[in-house]
Each structure stands twice: as C-alpha cells, then as structure tokens.
Amino acid sequence: MGKRVAIIGAGVSGLASIRSCLEEGLKPTCFEKSDDVGGLWKFSDHGEEGRASIYRSVFTNSSKEMTCFADFPYPDDFPSFMHHSKLLEYLTAYAKEKNLLKYIQFKTLVSKVKKRPDFSITGQWDVITEKDGKQESAIFDAVMVCSGHHVYPNIPKESFPGLKHFKGKCFHSWDYKEPGIFKGKRVLVVGLGNSGCDIATELSHTAEKVIISSRSGSWVLSRVWDDGYPWDMLLISRFENFLRNNLPKPISDWWYMKQMNSKFKHENYGLMPLNGTLRKEPVFNDELPARILCGVVSIKPNVKAFTETSAIFEDGTVFEAIDCVIFATGYSYDHPFLDDSIIKSRNNEITLFKGIFPPLLEKPTMAMIGFVQSFGSAIPTNDLQSRWVAQVIKGTCTLPSVEDMMSDIDETIRERLKCKGE
Questions:
Q1: Which of 95, 277, 379, 401 is the most exposed place for a label (fewest CB within 10 A)?
Q2: Where do the domains of the chain lie?
Q3: Closest by CA position to 32, among listed 53, 51, 47, 46
Q4: Topology of domain 160-222+263-327, CATH
Q5: pTM higher than 0.90, yes or no?
Q6: Which class is 4-151+331-419 in CATH?
Q7: Band (243; pLDDT cuts 50, 70, 90)
Q8: ∠ at Cα 318 (317, 322), nearest 5°?
C-alpha cells in the first residue's frame, strides 16, 4: 500500500505534488483553504488573511512556451504572456485533465501539523484540519507544504524613522488591487521588485505623481527580447547557463551586464544595481523606462526618514505632500501550522536543503514545494521539486547527511546575501 501524503495548498505546487505522488504510487490528500484551485493565481477583489493576493492587472513574467507542465502545453490561442485569469484557466484545465480534483478537500484549513510520538521511527505526522467549524485529525506518512510565500506581508517599519508620525495612508502591495482610488494622488512606492514596478507604472496613468524608492536598484528587463521573442526563450538555455558558469569571471560579468543593459543603460535612469555584476533577480516591466522618460515616475534612493507629510531620501531630496505610501517590500516566511522547531528561519531565510527539505528532521518526510526563487517560470521548477520529493518519500532517492546538508545551506545563504549586496 502506498504511503499517505498530506499536501497543503492546491496552487501550482499543490497540483504538481498531487500528480507526482500519484506517479510514484503514493496516496495524496490535498487540503485547500479556499473553494477552488489556483492559489496565488486565483484573483479576489479583496485581500483574505492567510492567502496570497494579486492585483487585477497582473500578467505573467514568463512566457507560455517556458511555463507549462511538461505533459500539458497551453492552447495555441493563449498569448505568450498571460493575464492571471488565463493562467488560472490553464491550472483548472490541468487539474481536470489529470483527474486531480478528487484528491482535494476544499474549504479545509490545516491548523496544525505535528510529529507523531514515534516520529523518529516512523516519520509520521498528525495533521489537524478544520472545516465547517469541525476539527479532524489524521495520520500521514509525509507532508508536502505547498502554501506559498506571498501570504504574510513584510513591512520593515523599524527601518524607516518617523514612519509612525506619517499621517497619510500606508499599506503593503498585498492590499493593492487597482489604480482608481489613487486618481490625482501623490504616491510613494517603496521597493523596486516586480510588484513595486507594476504598481508604480499603473498608478502613473492616474496619480498626480509617483516616486519609487529603492535601496539597492535593480535590473529591469523587457518581456520582449531579440527579434521579438519572449525573453526567457533566449536567456534560459543550456548554452547561456554554460557560459555563465564556465567563462572567466571578468568575461562572465561583462557579458552579464551587457545583456542586462541591452535595451537601455540603467545608470541613466537611476536604476543601476549597487553591484551590477551580482546575479540579482531582475524585474520585468516593459513600461517603466518610458514612464521615467515621460517624467510621471521618478526613481529615488532609500528613504532616510518620514515626516508627517513627506519622505526624506538619502540623497537629501524630499517628496512633499504624500497621500499614500505603498510598501512593496516582500513577504515574511511564516507557517502558523508548523512548530518553529521544524522550520527554522535565519534573516527571513528558511533553513532548507536545496530550498525544499528541513535538514534536521530524523526522517525526511516533510518538504516545502515552491519556495525556490528561480530565474524563470515557477511551474516547471515546482514540478521538478515535487517529483524529487515524491521519490524521496517513496524511498527511491536518499538525501545527504545532515552535516552535508547544513554545509550546503550555509553556502547558499552566503551566496544569497552577497547577491543582495549585504
């Protein structure tokens, strides 16, 4: 009899995990808090606590040619870069085509996952769920956490002196849905990631003035690359990866910066990363450079301090009469159903081997799917993660020693901090 596997969340990672478990002869049960599949890609016009949230205008940054499950291509009439509604349509079709829905318990909240008393021998877990006010507990041989990391907004208030005295509105990009209410407003967006750039460019069509504040700059790439092809069809290849990993560092750095600056010179726009040769994850926005040239979006350095009505930047300039501050400052890793002893966090980084396995468990029967930040689409990346995890749970793959896993984690964290310029 196949091992019983609890899967938490029915988004991209959850659907991939159900399929991978079935392929390995395991018995999956997926628990989904909402009433449908899709996770992050299921849009709602209001934020729901404990769930990821996207804005109405979100499009994918990866092309359909590079984003599909290996055995389920997109329909020919889908655009290369999809509105969130088209991606949700695809995920729904995938779940139906692969007969995955019967393994999902909808409107079911996982409130607690804890080790069984004999965990060191069996590796089993007690999974406690709530549905319609009733609580149930079941035993599982393994747990795959697929609940995502765009759930708990991170606003580093302690990093901004005077913020508590600011009298305008202040919220996280998690709460942002559409630009209508910002007509004629003066808006400061803190953060130069994908959400910050998307929101700023969208608001620039209705707001009076939009400023983006960035601590360290960012590469901003177009979705459309050479000869009109989607960027990822040309930049994500074995050949490109070979060049990045095997060329001498000075040549590799020169080639990398040449690619990043191929559409426009970032230095001229105030966007240049503090250390341009570091492989910091780029931002994809086709409109931002033009909005900067038109003067409706401005780029400023980090906020030094807030007053009641303004922001003072580190270069000494001031943005006066601010109506609203939107913090596009990322998310905190939090899993309220897990004990801190299972998933440890350092500097807002979860301690996981290859971004997937908690290394200190006596048995490798828990995995986190979808927490690896890849250069490219999440769907094939998460699919490969779930396939590996299913084989580890089944016993056909084994993990390295705890010592080797911890050494790998330490090296990964050092590289990540270096890429952030810290």
A1: 401
A2: 4-151+331-419, 160-222+263-327
A3: 51
A4: FAD/NAD(P)-binding domain (3.50.50)
A5: yes
A6: alpha beta
A7: confident
A8: 155
